[in-house]
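ok so I'm stuck.
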Amino acid sequence: MTKAEPRTILNFLATYFDSLKDLFDIQTSDGIIRKERLNELMQERKEDILSQLIDYKIIRKMGDDFEFRDTYYKLFEFILNEFRPLLPETIQKYEHSIGILFRKIREGIGKDKLILGQRINDLYNEIKEFSEAVEKNTIRLLNETRELKSNVEKLDYQEKVRKASFWIDYYITPLNNILDINHSDSITNKLFDISNYVNIRRLNFDDELLRLQFEKTYNFLVQTNDDLLRQSKLLTNELLPLIERIRTESIILTGWIEFLKAPNKAPLPKVFKVERVYPYSNDMYMNAQEYLEQFAIDETIFLEDPKMTSDKWVFNKDLYKAKMMDNLPIDSFFEWCGLTLRTDYEKIETDKFFALTALLFEEGIVIELENSGDRQLIHTNQMTLRVPKLKINRYGIS
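replied:
not stuck anymore, here's the structure
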């Protein structure tokens, strides 16, 4: 059978969107689309679209019944912003898969490059699926909590307490533990270790293609860390306090209603206590007197501008870079730094010396390290530095 054109499928989805949304709601509530429900829906809307649904591979048969293919179900979840909440143990499976891929990447770092590249890509995809699962769960839990707060389903107080406790115990608290970076077994903690490892590899890996993959994975991990931190703050600062408040308020209201049903079964507590209060403090007179007395005695006050002990030195990188480029080639970079500072300032100050070393990272130069292992001693005003001998040339000149 020839597959339909993509444009044809998209037009079909747009034309029969309402019917497809109803089917999506049916599967979400029942877990499957019964044949009878599907026939009733098509009769109500006078739309005979079953053959197209199957030909376009939107739904598939499950015995006599039907279900959405996973791709289309996720599409409607995303469009309608209606996600099924996943149990934390379902999300926790990513710790195992991510951990295995990370271990195999470290073990195969110097082996087959094709396999290593595939494992890096698989790790990227697993982390992305984990991040999306957390985001979907947070969105769903937030929607459920807000509906529970507004009591859309008109639940009684005891049922609200039960439902609030259910969301906290089975979803919110375990999910918050997964996102807690201080928890040694959390996935977020593992992602932090992976990020450190990938950061090192993206800077010094010899194969350019794999280095770019490490670069891409590192940048994605940085973004993922920000996203997970945002989801964790949402759980901690908004969702958990909101649902705890629902549970507490409902417990108080439930107990109060039960008390009103039979107030004679228990002695009535003293709910109200009459007290006389004033809009000002009893000590107001003494406080005002103490405040005014501090201005009764005039004192001469002298204000002096603080003298600047020394001028702050500003490193003129362009000036010293020009000096370095004029003196190339340089047989010993650190010795040149010391001689330059001694010429300009008659002594070598530690902070200025370290500022000059930043010239090593400028473009247009190439650095050679002598293999002899000899070290030079540079004496500054605060310490003695033991440094290697670095030869500096213009880039491209040996």
